[in-house]
Design a protein that fits this description.
Pathway: Cofactor biosynthesis; pyridoxine 5'-phosphate biosynthesis; pyridoxine 5'-phosphate from D-erythrose 4-phosphate: step 4/5. The chain has two domains: 159 residues, 3-Layer(aba) Sandwich (Isopropylmalate Dehydrogenase), CATH 3.40.718.10; 144 residues, Isopropylmalate Dehydrogenase (3-Layer(aba) Sandwich), CATH 3.40.718.10. Helices cover 37% and strands 17% of the residues. The protein contains twelve helices and twelve strands. A twelve-stranded mixed β-sheet has the order 3-4-2-1-5-12-11-6-7-10-8-9, sandwiched between helices. The longest helix is centred in the C-terminal third of the chain and has 18 residues. It is globular and about 60 Å long.
Length: 333
């Protein structure tokens, strides 16, 4: 196993994070990739079904103990946890876990960050100012330098499908006004850059989805394609990206269509999330592109409705860990 592990921030303590982390460790403990959890060691031991936990102080210790125990950088919670009942009182530690993971990734002490799910509502109640993980990570890494186009751009990956978003956590009613030529071009550049650097595709092909039904039907069903998306696709081509579209979204996701591109740029959240989850509901991965650190996460939420019952599946977290390790290895190469 590599001596530079991944870090996993533990997510909302009232959700399934501790359970799926423990299950992922059991699945990966012998073959890796090794990781260190940033969270509450006592919670991980109890919610993880009696998993053996080892508190460590330095990430490089993780590889040494990983086969025998789940390594944890222990940052204890300040109030009790009830499974399935999120609380704003946990927000300061949830945020601190994320900040610690980002700091370790920026310093090079860990090779990347995998984030267990958080719930936005209790964080908002505690004064959290960001729509979600993605935007918070962008703020935390904003001062760090990096080459190329900058995000954050959210990618969802499942099987052979890699879908990125122009707008992320935006109400559907506000998506048309949120689209701009600049936003689409930047998302396209970030996506093409990631397909080359992080996925090893030398000459990536990028499909671009339309916003409106039938790609606007020549303007009869909306003019966003004519006025914004088509000029953005032309600009991407002029910048050296092999981009096609805008194409009607209902033509882009069947198996034959997916052979014609390496990534697809979607205009809004559910345009990407629905096909990804239809293709692999349990194993999809969320990747944040255009950051100076590697970041992935499972493509599901906190699971408050099943927390504490021992039935949460770790598939997506395991896939996120493996993909983060693969991306980190490519960036080192």
């Amino acid at each position: 196993m590599t001596s530079r592990p991944l870090a996993i921030s533990a997510g909302d303590p009232a959700g399934v994070g501790a359970e799926i982390i423990a299950k992922a460790w059991r699945a990966l403990r012998h073959e890796g990739p090794a990781f260190v959890v940033i969270g509450d060691a006592q919670l991980l031991a109890s919610a993880g079904g009696g998993v053996k936990v080892r508190a460590i102080t330095r990430p490089q210790e993780a590889a040494q103990v990983f086969a025998d125990a789940l390594p944890v950088i222990d940052i204890p919670l300040l109030s009790p946890v009830v499974s399935g009942r999120p609380s704003p009182s946990h927000a300061p530690q949830i945020i601190r876990w994320i900040e610690t993971g980002v700091g370790l990734a920026l310093s090079g002490a860990v090779s990347g960050l995998v984030t267990a799910p958080i719930a936005k509502a209790p964080l908002y109640e505690a004064g959290f100012q960001f729509p979600g993980h993605t935007e918070f990570l962008a703020e935390l890494t904003a001062a760090a330098g990096m080459e190329g186009a900058r995000g954050p751009v959210m990618m969802l990956a499942a099987g052979d499908l890699r879908a990125t978003l122009v707008t992320i956590h935006t109400a559907l009613s506000k998506v048309p006004s949120a689209l701009s030529l600049e936003a689409i071009v930047n998302a396209g550049l970030v996506t093409a850059q990631a397909l080359r650097r992080d996925f090893g595709i030398a000459a990536p092909r990028l499909a671009v989805a339309a916003l409106n039904p039938h790609a606007g039907e020549g303007g009869a069903l909306g003019r966003e394609e004519i006025e914004i998306i088509e000029p953005a696709v032309s600009a991407l081509r002029n910048l050296g990206v092999e981009a096609s579209g805008p194409s009607p979204a209902d033509t882009l996701f069947h198996p034959e269509a997916r052979t014609r591109y390496d990534g697809v740029l979607c205009m809004y959240h559910d345009q990407a999330l629905i096909p990804v989850k239809m293709l692999d509901f349990w194993g999809g991965v969320n990747i944040t592109l255009g950051l100076p650190i590697v970041r992935t996460s499972p493509d599901h939420g906190t699971g408050f409705d099943i927390a504490g019952r021992g039935i949460a599946r770790p598939d997506s977290l395991i896939a996120a860990i493996k993909l983060a390790a693969d991306i980190a290895a490519r960036r080192r190469a």
